[in-house]
Design brief:
mainly alpha
Amino acid sequence: MAAQNNKISTGQMIFSVIWILLLPALFLILAGDWFWIQGWLFNIWYIVLGFSTVIYLYFKDPGLLLERLRKPGTGGEKGWDKYWLFIFLILFMIWFVIMPLDAKRYLWTINFPLWLEVIGGILLLIGFYFTFRALADNPYASAEVRIQTERKQKVVSTGVYGFVRHPMYLGGILYLIGAPLLLGSKYGLLLGILMAIFIVVMIVGEEKALIGELEGYGEYMKRVKYRLIPFIW
């Protein structure tokens, strides 16, 4: 492993487990219906992704798990990234809260047709794949924009990183759009699209930092030409 100290504390593991279970419980409480099928499908997706990621990293790459559990602002990330993370977290929590209120408790949105819900479920599954594989393929997949000099960060170009340059962001966009489609939330979909645009802007800033500070990234960009969607961008 790349990290010098890969020991995961008990407190960090407890925090991870509580976080993974707390949001799904809050989701159903906000919905006001513990028998909401679409809500359970989304929660199962979220829990499986959360636990499979934590368990995999705990045994296979504890250095990356520690990196992703790092407290924001302690890793020397770019100054603008601190504000980006803060704004994105607020948008994410609004997105998470508004979907059960919109789709179930208050029915602000008339239920989407079944075919849209199916598309949403498919997007979630594809998003699961890209998110998990990005973490499995890239031992430097930090949640922050920073060059991990202490972990001797290198360019990763294998696995899903040979498909697009930002597979984790692709996975995130897919579930930000897929979840509200599955649940039937118009306002969740609008917020998901807003956050997707936010991610696109973020990618542009991140790549400027990587080109200037991470050796070999310019060559990688020539080999893998597309950031998110092959033949488009």
